[in-house]
Amino acid sequence: MDQYSTKPLLVQKVLGCLIGGAVGDAMGAPPEGKNPEEIRTRYGWITDFVEPWDGPSPLGKGDGRYTDDSHMVQILSRIYLDVNDHLDVYRFAEIVPPIADHRAMCRNGAVTCSCSTASFTPKSGSTSAAAR
Question: Which residues contact 56 (CB under 8 A, 6 or more apart)?
Answer without folding.
Answer: none
